[in-house]
Specification:
The complex is a heterodimer of chains A (about 120) and B (about 400). Chain A is mainly alpha-helical and about 120 residues long. Chain A folds into 2 domains: about 1-35; about 40-115, Cytochrome c-like domain (Cytochrome Bc1 Complex, Chain D, domain 2, Orthogonal Bundle). Chain A contains 5 helices and no strands. Chain A has helices at about 5-35, 40-60, 70-75, 80-90, 105-115. In chain A, helix 4 crosses helix 5. Chain B is mainly β. Classes of the chains: A mainly alpha (about 120), B mainly beta (about 400). Chain A: It comes from Vogesella margarita. Chain A: InterPro entries: Cyt_c-like_dom (IPR009056), Cyt_c-like_dom_sf (IPR036909). Chain A: This is Cytochrome c.
């Protein structure tokens, strides 16, 4: 089948657009896939840990204390990766301890995601 | 959810009781106490004679890290909330009588030796504010800003004799003594370079010594207020030498209760140890290995034994140290997340708060047997009224 030149250009553009969209969607799916929600019981335990034990320094409402605030607004624009690293390995020179003994990497990513979304308890 | 239901049930029970009587019977406040219910933003008024709750007062804001001091007549408490609120509660009537929001983020407070000034220590904006104890009207504002113009969080506020207060600056590493003889124009004396990151402080029960614990290095900073010209000196320096400091999941708390008899019992931050110093020379007298990192190290009123609770993940345990032998003689598992302990005035019982089991546990100190467990919603600090007459409390 032979299409007029203008249509060929159009279809090429469509293809490009479709490819971009596919790429975008696949990345979005990838990003979502990276955040694995823990099983409900574990999720509850992690929320409890966040509220009570992180809250010992960061406040029960996460508005800060000896530690900095962990509200969505306070964490806005901060790269998730570096927040996950701080959570897992602590922050040298500050009072922030490493939580790696108690939290897996996937759980840390989920917790940071929750905090940045403002979904934390 | 469960705690809320229970809370509602308890509230209903109290209402029923109150409905049954007309004027409340005349009573003293010497055996009363106040328990912080941190998540609910309420406090319970309890009796340590009957081991019961007498009333609950709600609407005190964010009490996630709350502490309180007593008026000198032991009728009122001033509750300092995380949200910067000061709530004045009449414990005999079980009523909130005054409340001010005085900062964005607060950590605790103190009351002056004449009982007329309430001081609040704040993280944000960092500083100390003085209030009229009757009206909660602001008297003075002392921002914790160092010579470089940098703000600090204020920790370890304690009252000293003569309407003075001592406190520490976390970021700046300074101890300030505030003379509030003229409450609207207090005078500050600053002690600089006392050590890195003081995390809390205490005044001895005679009001002579002020000690700040250091997070940023091993040791504590000591000020002898009888010899202020001698400045602040380091005690128990380098206690962690040769040992790796472990991560700290909860900062220890210091208060005058850790001074008992000839000794001071202090948490070794980052280590599973209680440090013991001779309270004349302030030299190390012993180290007691314990189950976890100590949070509260509290001597019984007799000074004969010292009770210790621990930071996460060891906070289901309480240990008891025998002072003459400097040995742990008892290990208890009274509940999950034991946040605080409080002795009755003469030490016949100790009350513990179990945050994650929503209960208070009353333990007989002579037998270590549990006398009673009481429901409480997410409890933290327990404060008995004997504090009303004690310096540094």
């Amino acid at each position: 089948m032979k299409l007029p030149a203008c249509c060929r250009t159009l279809s090429a553009k469509c293809l490009l657009l479709a490819c971009c969209a596919a790429l975008f969607i696949s990345e979005a799916v990838h990003a979502d896939n990276a955040i694995v929600s823990p099983a409900p019981q574990r999720a509850a335990a992690l929320r409890h840990l966040l509220r009570e034990d992180c809250g010992a320094c960061h406040g029960l409402t996460l508005n800060g204390g000896l530690g900095s605030p962990l509200t969505a607004a306070a964490l806005a624009g901060k790269p998730a990766d570096s927040l996950v690293a701080t959570l897992l390995d602590g922050r040298p020179g500050s009072a922030m301890p490493p939580w790696r003994p108690f939290i897996s990497e996937a759980e840390a990513q989920w917790l940071i995601h929750q905090l940045q979304q403002g979904d934390a308890p | 959810m469960k705690a809320m239901t229970r809370l509602a049930a308890m509230a209903a029970g109290t209402a029923l009781l109150l409905a049954g009587c007309g004027t409340p019977a005349l009573r003293g406040s010497g055996d009363l106490g106040v328990v912080i219910e941190r998540a609910a933003g309420s406090v319970q008024v309890v009796s340590n004679s009957s081991n019961t709750m007498l009333s609950r007062v709600a609407g005190l804001g964010d009490l996630s890290h709350a502490s309180l001091v007593y008026s000198r007549d032991a009728r009122y408490v001033y509750v300092f909330g995380r949200d910067g609120g000061i709530s004045k509660v009449d414990i005999l009537a079980g009523k909130l009588v005054a409340r001010v929001l005085q900062a964005g983020n607060s950590i605790g407070g103190a009351i002056s030796s004449d009982g007329r000034i309430v001081a609040a220590q704040n993280y944000s904006p960092g500083g100390v504010k003085l209030f009229d104890a009757d009206t909660l009207a602001l008297l003075a504002d002392i921002p914790a800003v160092d010579d470089n113009g940098q703000p600090s969080k204020v920790v370890g506020l304690a009252d000293l004799p003569g309407n003075r207060f001592a406190f520490s600056l976390f970021e700046a590493g300074e101890i300030w003594v505030l003379d509030a003889a003229t409450p609207r124009a207090p005078q500050v004396t600053k002690y600089r370079n006392v050590g890195r990151n003081p995390y809390d402080g205490l005044a001895s029960s005679d009001g002579r010594y002020y000690i700040a614990g250091l997070y940023g290095e091993d040791g504590l900073a000591l000020l002898d207020t009888w010899q202020p010209q001698a400045g602040v000196r380091r005690i128990l320096g380098g206690y962690g030498q040769g040992q790796d400091k472990q991560p700290v999941y909860k900062m220890p708390h210091l208060r005058g209760w850790s001074l008992a008899g000839d000794y001071a019992f202090l948490p070794a931050i980052g280590h599973h140890e209680v440090l013991v110093a001779d309270n004349r020379s302030w030299r190390e007298a012993a180290r007691v290995p314990v189950y976890g990192q100590p949070v509260f190290v509290m001597a019984e009123p007799s000074g004969r034994r010292v009770w210790v609770n621990f930071a996460f993940p060891h906070n289901d345990t309480v240990q008891v140290i025998d002072v003459p032998t400097m040995q742990v003689i008892k290990t208890l598992k009274p509940g999950r997340a034991i946040l605080h302990m409080e002795f009755t005035a003469r030490g016949d019982a100790v009350w513990l708060s179990s945050r994650d089991d929503d209960k208070l546990v009353v333990i007989d100190t002579a037998t270590f047997q549990t006398r009673r467990e009481l429901p409480a919603a997410n409890p933290s600090g327990i404060f008995f009224s004997w504090r009303a007459g004690r310096m540094g409390m």
